[in-house]
Amino acid sequence: MFRLPNPVPFASLLPSFDGELYFDESPAHTAQRLLYATDASVYQEIPIAVALPKSVADIKRLLRFAQQHRLGLIPRAAGTSLAGQVVGSGIVVDISTHFGQIVEVDAVNRWVRVQPGVIRDDLNAFLKPHGLLFGPETSTASRAMIGGMIGNNSCGLHSIIWGTTRDHLLEVKVVLSDGAEVTFGALSRAQFDAKCRGETIVSPLEQRLYAQFRDWLSDPVARQSIRDGYPKSTVTRRNTGYALDEFLSFWNDQPDASATFNFARLIAGSEGTLCFITEAKLNLLPLPPAETALVCAHFVTIRESLEANLVALDHQCAASELVDDYILQLTKTNIEQAKNRAFVEGDPKAILMVEFFDTTADGVRRKSAAFVQALQAKNLGYAYPVLFDDDTKKPWALRKAGLSIMYNIPGKAKPANVIEDTAVDVYDLPDYIDELDKMAWEQHGLKLEYSAHAGAGEIHVLPLIDLKSSAGRTTFRALLMDTAQLVKKYGGSLSGEHGDGRLRGECIAFMLGAENYERCKAVKALWDPHNTFNPGKVVDTPPMNEFLRSEADVEIPQPNTVFDFAKDGGLLELAEKCSGSGDCRKTEISGGTMCPSYMATRREHDTTRARANILRHFYTSQETPSATDYAAVKDVLDLCLSCKACKAECPSSVDMTRMKAEFTQQQYRESGVPMRARLVGNFTRLMSLASNVPWAYNAIYDTPALRRLANRTVGFHPDRTMPALAKTTLRQWFRSRPTESRIPNTVTRKQTSVLLFADEFTNFNDVEVGQKAVQLLERLGYTVTIPEHAESGRTYLSKGLVADAQQLAIRNVTLLKDLVSDDTPLIGLEPSAILTFRDEYPDLVPTDLKAAAQQLAKNTFLLEEWVAREADAKRIRPDAFTTDARQVRVHGHCHQKALSSMVPVKKALSLPANYTVQLIPSGCCGMAGSFGYETEHYALSMQIGELVLFPAVRQLTDDVIISAAGTSCRHQIKDGTHRHAQHPAEILFDALR
Fold this sequence. Notes:
By secondary structure, the protein is α/β, with parallel strands linked by helices. A hairpin with a 7-residue loop joins strand 17 and strand 18 (460-465). The termini are far apart. 55% of the residues are buried.
């Protein structure tokens, strides 16, 4: 079903092409072409090839080849565009992997030169020591790249003070359609005239560009037509068509001798349709003042919030951003955003986030207080929480997640990016939104969701439309056309910052007038006479309701699964939740855990988005899948470490760990279970056998030559060490120890009983951790029992043996449901094992056990969570621990960060009064169970460790305690740094008085 024939002779390009090229029918090539068929928009079109060039020479080779075979070149950076800018049938040219260099920085003159694949937030991290930043700040700034920001003329949160990308683009180096590499920068009138005469040019095309623009724009009639047709000058966000209005001042009736001409201003916002960007010189701004205040004003109507926005602008705010009740409600069910909404009071219809900067704390407090007083004087709003400095990051994170979090809405109707980018004069905004809301409801029966850039006159508006139906597609088109009329009535721009792409291109003639649209077409023909650069965008676009992701009026059945995906609407609908926003493309510089494989490889192929896309393609096909189809999907899923970070950090809550496991189970049914997968799944059985002769097992794996041989035999990397087998198991030790050997209780209070889950890793390999946990709890006054239970099932889940894990889940819920309660909790040590009770078990057990599984999940805790809870209740006190001073550095397990929190860990380890506990800002350690052992994954595993964790650990002195709750994490730290990390249970036990 994935067969994608290709008649173009791409093989002839390979000998001279240094980068990567994907074009044939092999599983790996087919997968790549499918992955690049979409961006963050609603569109889908399979490209004829995907190229990852390594050099400008590669780009020129692609250009010649594309022109020879009449193909389009589609430049792509992060692929977060919302108007289908990087979707098309040509060659997708991904510059994100090999064009990410910061070339030069001049801190004195405040500019930086970069390649187009540099990420905005990563650039600012680099610039911060220089006291500088690049201003434009999209909500996707953690992965948005400079090339894409230029293409769309991106703006962002602080555009009212920092401007647009166009405002800061000093120079741009490009490859023109004739293959010439040209740099465009600011020219004086004399320099411009010289270019028109053919002086200081690189190619004849460069001269024609200048001369033709002179001929066009020196005509006063043409200039007046542009003034009349383009958005009115008070609309600050204006990305409709090509930016011809940017050049009018150069030909004023009374010329300004200081005026300059810069084609960079045209290229900004041109969406890659005129040339191919290879480098950019950017203007930089000083870092904002250190003190920040964020007023989160609450309102009962949208209009009230927009009227308050005008008050905010009168108070010279730095940003004014809207979030409505739709988004606020959805944040309650998103793991990550639920942590960010503590500032919300009640259920407001809208919250306006208004930010102020100042050099002093008193200054921002005065500014924020004056703004709040002004709102109160006008009876605007009912609550005005004010946050300061680092506390402002959580509301901003919630705001940035807005568009993507909408995809969590259940049902067929989904958020549609269609009228989300309109911009008007900010003083027209309240009336415009009133009219838009009325039109959408009365003419189309649609309720709208509102968010984003109130201060700049641009509200992102999302309707819910079923684009899988013909009726929905009709509404999709009609709504855009009706909105275009309303925007034009207000003299606004149909695109403020997301661009025209293939979504709004049809409307340009209406918005700007027929003459100006013909001028835009002439600009395209002048710059790109062969129609090679990103064809079908901005001008001559296909109908906006064609080439959508799904066929209309085709019912796709949800696949049968072992997991219960009902709450997500089924496995396919969970995959379809991926909005394409690319949050999984952030790097280790931005922080977080998602997605560790992408952080290491910087390849789209290795993102959570790619995996969701390939699963969507697989499950929407109506054909019976072949072995090649399974191989194509497996190729994309292979580097998923099952870290679960996407479940929490993806705004759409795309749980790739679960989907990968389910797909793998289905593949096993077709082709059988590989030996290594079965061996890993059967870890507990194998360790149980080996525990009878632990000396023999350890002798093999402690001897390098024997270990290498044994590792190779099962498909593990020869350099990977293996965890030792303890002399006894935790269960044996617990059962056999005499009563009098138990450490006496040192806490004089009524004892509380707890149940300890002896997971399969602690029971066989990390027995000392289990022993110290038992002794710690007893010393703190708790009665510890290890109940009868089965293994957790984690090893089976990690290898996609979901049916086996299901049987273990059923057994454990059956055994423990009558033992675990509020008064007698179940406590675990290994995060990946104990958190199966919280995460997977409720969706693995049959209906008659679901309530029991959910109740069990509520009373199951990581040791650190439970200790922190007891400490909060004053049942565990600091005086039980030493007063010695120690430094502790903590690496969090991925599942712990996704399904729990690192806050309880820090709180528990801080019980010793003089322990200074800090979190290592690491993502995944790279081991991920058996992943880091496997031959083909070992190198990547160590590469992931080297991103943050290994360097951070190596910098620590020997007296610093390293904490890691995960057995895999501790082993990875040992192999990668030769340092010994301890479980929090060990650290707290050793700290007892």
